[in-house]
Design a protein that fits this description.
By secondary structure, this protein is mainly alpha-helical. It has a domain at 3-129. It contains eleven helices and three strands. Strands 1-3-2 form a three-stranded antiparallel beta sheet. The chain is elongated and about 60 Å long. The relative contact order is 0.10.
Length: 195
């Protein structure tokens, strides 16, 4: 099972538990983490709004997760990367989330969120730009300019005068059926990025 389909299965499982019996604190943290991994920011925001106050203030984990969501929604990527790094995930959740994605091996959930955010940002850059400054890519990806050059080299993107990068479209596998909210979120992020 791919990491994305397993994530979606866990999301559906937790959502159905929430509808039937309600969630306990750790399940709220897991569901928020899954929403962040899958870039379901509207769902993450709604989870925040309906979560009990006790969950929001307990040890601050849920608040920190929501800070990541808010930064991504506001397109404040330096803050998003700083917020991601600032979340100390409880070990039970981090270990549980490792099982979600074999692709990243033994890395922790923080890396799942970071890597997925960077992949989405690179895909948007490839779709939206004929050329982009390395400094702008650095901010968008949360990387140093040297790391951006390395990423561009690995993707076989060319660089030109004035520290410009000329992206090539990234080949994406054909999409399976996309949930309604996910499609709307994706279209919204493309439009926001182009503004």
């Amino acid at each position: 099972m791919t990491s994305s389909s397993e994530s979606h299965a866990r999301i559906q499982e937790l959502e159905s538990i929430e509808l039937q019996d309600g969630l306990y604190d750790e399940q709220y943290l897991r569901l928020m983490a899954l929403y962040l991994i899958e870039n379901q920011l509207c769902d993450a925001r709604m989870l925040w709004l309906r979560a009990p106050d006790e969950v929001k203030v307990a040890e601050g984990f849920f608040q920190k997760q929501f800070n990541v969501c808010q930064a991504i929604m506001a397109r404040n990527y330096p803050e998003a990367y700083a917020s991601i790094a600032g979340v100390n995930w409880p070990s039970e959740i981090a270990l549980d989330m490792q099982a979600v994605s074999c692709e990243y091996g033994e890395t922790m959930i923080v890396e799942f969120v970071k890597v997925n955010l960077k992949k989405r940002r690179l895909a948007l850059i490839a779709k939206a730009y004929a050329s982009i400054a390395i400094s702008d890519m650095s901010i968008s990806l949360g990387l140093s300019p040297e790391s951006v050059r390395e990423v561009c080299s690995n993707l076989k993107w060319t660089t030109g005068p004035g520290d410009l990068v000329y992206p090539k479209k990234i080949k994406e596998p054909p999409c399976a059926a996309i949930r309604g909210n996910t499609l709307v979120d994706h279209l919204s992020s493309v439009i926001q990025f182009l503004e």
